[in-house]
């Protein structure tokens, strides 16, 4: 049953999670990372960039967080053993919490609080 579970914790599955505590469901995927500068061709670069844009959009819409520092060093290429290549965002040292950022317009402004339990990387759900 663990093999039929989605690789992403954000992807939905019609089947309930029936893994026992002794044998938890595996949601970890083995990937190899590469720098954004190591793209193979223009189509590959555009695909990786679209994945990063989609990941940023879902991070904002699902988590209410803006990355805060997107550049060529914070977008990486993920290569899985099955040959699938995706883009992802890393380095969440400067995220902005949108609810806290909205308070900046208040008479008593409060800066965004530090984000705890930041993900190592973020990719769009279902990718």
- Any idea what the CATH architecture of the largest domain is? Orthogonal Bundle
CATH class of the largest domain: Mainly Alpha
Overall radius of gyration: 17 Å
What CATH calls the topology of the largest domain is: Transferase(Phosphotransferase), domain 1
Residue stretches low in confidence (pLDDT < 50, at least 5 long) are 1-17
Q: What is the 3D form?
A: globular
Main sheet makeup: 4 strands, antiparallel
The ordered string of helix (H) and strand (E) elements is EHEEEEHE
Helix content percent band: 10-25%
Count of DSSP H/I helices:
2
Which structural category do the helix and sheet elements fall into? Answer: alpha+beta
Secondary structure: number of strands: 6
The side-by-side strand order for the widest beta sheet comes to: 1-3-4-6
Strand content: 15-25%
Q: How many domains, as an integer?
A: 2
Distance between the termini: 20 Å
Report the mean per-residue pLDDT as an integer.
Answer: 71
Nutshell version of this structure?
The chain is an alpha+beta fold. It is built from two helices and six strands.
Spell out the key features of this protein.
127 residues; alpha+beta; Transferase(Phosphotransferase), domain 1; 2 domains; two-stranded antiparallel sheet; 6 strands; 21% helix; 17% strand; globular; Pkinase_fungal; Fungal-type protein kinase domain-containing protein
């Amino acid at each position: 049953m663990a093999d039929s579970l989605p690789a992403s914790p954000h992807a939905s599955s019609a089947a309930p999670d029936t893994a026992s505590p002794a044998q938890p469901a595996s949601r970890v995927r083995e990937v190899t990372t590469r720098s954004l500068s190591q793209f193979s061709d223009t189509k590959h670069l555009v695909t990786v960039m679209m994945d990063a844009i989609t990941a940023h959009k879902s991070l904002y819409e699902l988590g209410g967080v803006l990355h805060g520092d997107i550049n060529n060093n914070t977008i990486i290429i993920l290569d899985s053993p099955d040959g699938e290549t995706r883009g992802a965002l890393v380095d969440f040292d400067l995220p902005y919490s949108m609810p806290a950022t909205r308070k900046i317009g208040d008479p008593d402004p409060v800066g965004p609080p530090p984000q705890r339990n930041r993900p190592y990387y973020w990719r769009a759900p279902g990718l």
